[in-house]
Specification:
The chain contains 10 helices and 6 strands; from the N terminus they run βαβαβαβααααβαβαα. It is α/β, with parallel strands linked by helices. The chain has a domain of about 170 residues: Rossmann fold. It is globular, with a radius of gyration of 17 Å.
Length: about 270
Amino acid sequence: MALPNTGLQRPSPSLSLGTLPLKPDTLAGLGRVAAPVSILLPGLDGTAELFDPFVAAAPAGFPVRPLALPNDRPRGYDDLATWVIAQLPKEPVVLIAESFSGPLALLVADRCPRIVALVLCASFVAAPFPKLLARVPVFAWNRPPPRAILSFFLTGGDKTLGDAVFHAIESVPSHVLAQRVVAALSVDVTAELARYSGPLLVISARFDRVIPSKCSDLVRAAKPSARFAVVRSPHLVLQSRPVDAWEQIASFLQNSSVCAACGAES
């Protein structure tokens, strides 16, 4: 499938995050499939630099492309949703949204009929922390946290992955990053969630030190028919446990009938 020449990126071959070895045989039982392309929407950093292990672990028949968010100026969720829709291919797509991008994915799905399924990974649909924090001046969020703090909260202490996260965040202009923090602290897309009628998978990280469990509980209350999964991982599920994440996602897509063809052969 041809994709427009936009922010959609193929993974960088030079980045190695030192995560668990990939086990392609784990996914061998999925059979032959022809799934719509999955677009990866990143976390707060907005880059596509951290998706390499997840892209590399994709089973055959599950095309996936990271989409880096624009860093040209500060943008809220509404602005980002308009931008993302303009980058999407004309064919049906699945959105796999990590952390910060969960609300973004719901906004996009609410406005774009080509979205055939959503995967929210360690994410939220309403501000995960008290909205009083959104009143803190934007400049207060300009400096990224120290590496040790990022590693503790996001990677479960994985230093290699923690360093990669720090470099990704450091590459984003501080005022752009600060606006994303403010947006996340004030967002509420529960109305868009209520209107969404397509297949929905919610993946939670068992050892998440960022997103509280009440966030998935909120989705469960609004969409009891959605599929819910827990992966034994820190907050960065797709980077820390890419094969485990794909097991959930691939099975979800097959069972949701969004694959054009799902054979029984391996």
